[in-house]
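Before going further, learn to read the protein records used in this course. A complete example follows; check for yourself that the lines match position by position.
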Amino acid sequence: MTQIRKVVLNSRPGKNGEPVPENFRVEEACLPADLNPGHVQVRTLYLSVDPYMRCRMNEDTGTDYLSPWQLSEVVEGGGVGIVEDSRHDSFTEGDTVASFSWPWQTQAVLEGKLLQKLDPQLVDGRHSYFLGAVGMPGLTALLGVREKGHVTPGANQTMVVSGAAGACGSLAGQIGRLDGCSKVVGICGSDEKCQVLVSELGFNSAINYKRQDVAARLRESCPTGVDVYFDNVGGSISDTVIAQMTEGGHVILCGQISQYNKDVPYPPPLPASTQEVLHTKHITRERFTVLNYTEKHEAGMLQLSQWVREGKLKVLETVVKGLDNMGVAFHSMMKGGNVGKQIVHVSE
């Protein structure tokens, strides 16, 4: 029997509650001695920590495509690792694999149908990139911009990204520029993050919503208005951005992290004034879910990996070591403590 360690949901934050590290606990467990047909034993390299997971901490996630985590049951999410043993024809020992349903464990037995085989050369051996720039956040940024942003090269469009220093936002702004936006402006929560966006990622300017007047800075940074808005946060920041959008503009409704600790439906209702702006200016604002575009994932990953290898897409990561620190990493990410993708490094 193989001894492992796993993270289970210890408690729920409660309605309108902020998650804390103590919502999770680490337990010892054993893997079964024998593999059943169709199953694969894997060793976990990296685990993903993402804002959407806050919804899974509630008894009701508020969405039809996410199931809640159960109390005292192992937590799961995006993960990448190495095959140690296989009774599935598609996988052999040593393969690099990923899954959206990877348990927070040092090792695990998974159904082969839940795994995706990956080529480490796509990311020059940096396995964590499969959870970020060449994984779900990267695909969300790429397909969000391309499916809902209506970016047109040469059209002199201005894009604004909220949550711009996060896993998805930091990529979305760069992709907007690569796809033809003439100006990209980021909104984030610290001067340090603002500096990274401009000096490292090529944003034209950045706004610290905690210290600056967002409306005034937007007027200054986007004198002709906002054509495309990549919305990761929702709430009052998004209302402010939408108020300055141009006729026929496009909102990419990706996330609403400012609302995730609140007991409201998803997407949360908008103030009447914001609804009026959307209506009178004919601004599109449709919920974007990357899982609805699975047929475009493979080509998207190839595009993302090519940009990363060419240095056109810069990758930011905040890496925390050790399964024991999953709760700490989750709490920090929800508080905005990460720059780029929040990752937990479980093993070599």
About this structure: DSSP finds nine helices and 15 strands in the chain. The chain has a mean pLDDT of 94. The longest strand covers residues 76-86. Residues 4 and 29 are 5 Å apart (CA to CA).
